[in-house]
Amino acid sequence: MVIRWFTFILGAALLQSLSALSPVPIPEDEWTEYWRMLRDPAYRLPTTTRPSRYVVSLTPYFNNVTPPIEPFTFDGVASIYIRPTQANVNEIVMHCNDLRIQTLTVSLNNQQIGLVNDTYECEPVYSFLRIRTTEPLQMDSEYVVSVTYTGRLQTNMRGFYRSWYRDSSGFRWMATTQFQPGHAREAFPCYDEPSFKALFDITINREADFSPSISNMPIRSNETLSNGRIAETFYTTPLTSSYLVAFIVSHYRQVSTNNNINRPFDIYARENAGRTGDWALEIGELLLDAMENYTNIPYYNMTENINMKQAAIPDFSAGAMENWGLLTYREAFILYDPQNSNNFYRQRVANIVSHEVAHMWFGNLVTCAWWDNLWLNEGFARFYQYYLTQSVAPELGYDIRFIVEQLQTSMLSDSVDSAHALTNPAVNSPSSVSAHFSTITYARGASVLRMTQHLLGEETFVKGLRKYLNNRKFDVAEPNHLFEALDEAAVEDQALTQYNNITIDAYFRSWSEKAGHPLLTVSINQATGEMIVTQSRWERDTGVSSFPSLWEIPITWTRAGAPDFNNLKPSQILTEQVTTIQRGTQGLEWVIFNKQESGYYKVNYDQNNWILLTRALRHYTQRIIIHELNRAQIVDDVFVLARAGVMTYDRAFNILSFLKIEDAYGPWIAAITGFNFVAGRLAYNSSNLQRLQDEIINLSTGITQRLGYTDSGSDPFMDGLLRMYVMTFLCNNGHTECMAAAKQNFDSWRSGNFVPANMRPWVYCSGLRQGTAEDFDYFWNRFLNEELASEIVVMIQAAGCTLNQASLERFLNAIVDGNNTIRPQDLSTAWSSAISGNEENAMRMFNWLRSNINQVINNLGSAATPISQIASRLRTEAQISEFQAWLDQNQQLLGAAYNTGIQGITTTRRNLEWAQGRTTEFVKYFDTGYLDEEIEDIPGTGEGGDGEDGVPDSANIINLSIIALITTVAINLIA
Ligand SMILES: [Zn+2]
């Protein structure tokens, strides 16, 4: 499954930023439920019986029914073939949820056996279906559990659920599925855990005027039933987990097809989708080929008759789902219109398709045994969605973007003491799950795999993975299966001999079973070349974690005198807290650790090295000697070090001053993320915020000079994407030329002219911000008539930018109108747009909420989302008091949202204090600008003055390391 990312950036954004271009929310209750299931053994099925095959026939009803059939229900008939796994089993337990069981029998050799009960229900909470037999089941015998039942077409985008859309015939109902993690049980009784793999024979009995139904496998046979319905039976699936089963009942058409009978690949969507499925087909075929070559396991041989289909679903809770042979997506993530979808969506379609295609091997063929090792599915899918796509579409820049979109984002979410490990997560509360589970599992997993790839070398890594897949195919896996296969390949290729024959098992466990990640503090004696490297667990607010930890860190480094950023094979593995490394040269020379940010760790240096790096970065020719990814690393590390107070902001901004001549993608995206965080914190004081914005505009000289303000249509892909992000950021920060360009293009768009898709996010937003109520009305009418999902999302993201109060209220009213003006899947994007469009929006939204609180609660169930958003954007004590008073007055009405609001206020107060405490550092830099600091005294280097011995700053760092070491020892003793 693909879920959202960038959410951590979003939380910190002052105004709409690039993060706003990444939707896909997961409802909080989904994570809570997922979490409960994961931790509590009471939710687990016994393994005393196992299924081998399901034969399921479903008859769905929409609104066209006659009593006693109820609309939006379905009839089901299921035969489940099972065997006991041990002697004396007299209870069969499987899952069912929200199904009404009508009849249930169990047979052996076509003879019904005795059952204790004659009525059955899906037990609440654990959703178990318990079938007690009068006699124990016989070993080595196959039983058939036959069930007839009715179910409901759900409305919450889970299970077997209903959705709607409009095509040239008007309004259409449809039904589709989303079963991960545990919703197959809402469609048929089943062993709804990943380790119970079985074969599935699905039949759908559809109304005659519907299109042929779609499922994992192609249709094997069909017949017309006496009631006029068409029964379509699909070929038997491969041996699969229940969460990977899927079916769609709709009026869909094949909108794109490769017409290849040997390797069939088709795109399904509503019939008016035009040619927007072509890109997903083109890139999908390339990716499927690439993955077959990579794994050496052909997809089309996984089982007989298998084909590949992708379908665009109007209402979809996740981003996409890897059902075997039937990948399902939100429309915006698969339907791409080259004229009207921007570059974000071009790459997003490609990499989400890549993610799902990779799952056919990592996830479907070999499945995590339980959800606590979900990273075995998702870490790989996230990894390949970048690096597999990079191999077939290098112009889309996935190697650059992995660093800023995945690695840096996951390190940020991973650097809190409550973070959990990849395996056996030990998160403390359900609420921390929704905040951390997704990013850590997906992005951290992918980042550690990338580090392992470079440790082993590509060939050995691939060899090991092929062993893993072949050993575990059509089965489930635990992490040790992966480690054993990689170790076997490593021994064959002698890939780890240079590291004292460390094993992948030992190395990987230090990354998968521990939470957090290390900071390396590097202190260099420039005179002797001796480098002292200290590792400690990083914590983002204080710099020091309360839970010290050591990792086995494969390191890479290079130096100014012989820069080599391309060899990513680690020079050694650090296992100790403090390690001394010889640079091998004497005299002043910068070093950079973590080449291309290939390792999963952050780096801080002593002052002298930072000064040397800053000078190089500010130099036109020396700057580009440093790899773009390391420039992005420096920007990110510096912002993060400053946030924690390990580096002062004046020093951080001194280093970041090189951005003025920087014009590359990686460093700028890292900078936008960092500046958005800082701007969010400086927003409590408008004059400080203004000075920050002046500095941002000052630093944007190089990048705006290179990119300009207009999409040329012939730009390299990455430039079009970067311009979209940079202009969104600069317009939001009051950049005059950006705003003028936005206004001019907005007016031109209002006059009916075409505006390139890449420009629309900032042209719409800044145009509305500078525009009138009439401008908003025009914009809103265009929105109401828009059919392209990616454009709909872009427009929702811009709608909150209006500064007209009545227009903002029109937008807010639409969010809660209960008429699907904004689909449920887009609601969180809409709220986020409404709150973050302008600084003024928070209080305007609060005033609106006071008058509309009942409608919000009635139509959305809770006011938690707007309340938490308003709380996070209050700027003064007066605003906080006013908001708190309102919360108190309405405590009863607000329910759980009351606590959300109070917690939000606490965080805001803390941030306000933080800002007050750190202001002098910012002001210091704003007053002086860049200062060329002097290198501290280094004997024998010709630098420095009065010959005091030692290297003061380095010495301080060493002292700090020693203090950290003592603290660690003390805490370990206590533990
Ligand atoms: Zn996935």
TrEMBL record:
This is Aminopeptidase. Its EC number is 3.4.11.-. Its main location: membrane. The keyword Signal applies. The record marks 442 as: Transition state stabilizer. One of its GO terms (cellular component) is side of membrane. SUPFAM superfamilies: Leukotriene A4 hydrolase N-terminal domain, Metalloproteases ('zincins'), catalytic domain. Its cofactor is Zn(2+). It is found in: Cell membrane. It comes from Euphydryas editha. It is a lipid-anchor; GPI-anchor. Belongs to the peptidase M1 family. Residues 590-896 form the ERAP1-like C-terminal domain. Binds 1 zinc ion per subunit. GO terms for biological process: peptide catabolic process; proteolysis. InterPro entries: Aminopeptidase_N-like_N, Aminopeptidase_N-like_N_sf, ERAP1-like_C_dom, M1_APN-typ, Peptidase_M1, Peptidase_M1_aminopeptidases, Peptidase_M1_dom, Peptidase_M4/M1_CTD_sf. Zn(2+) binds at residues 355, 359, 378. Keywords: Aminopeptidase, Cell membrane, Glycoprotein, GPI-anchor, Hydrolase, Lipoprotein, Membrane, Metal-binding, Metalloprotease, Protease, Signal, Zinc. The keyword ATP-binding does not apply. One of its GO terms (molecular function) is peptide binding. Residues 1-20 form the signal peptide.
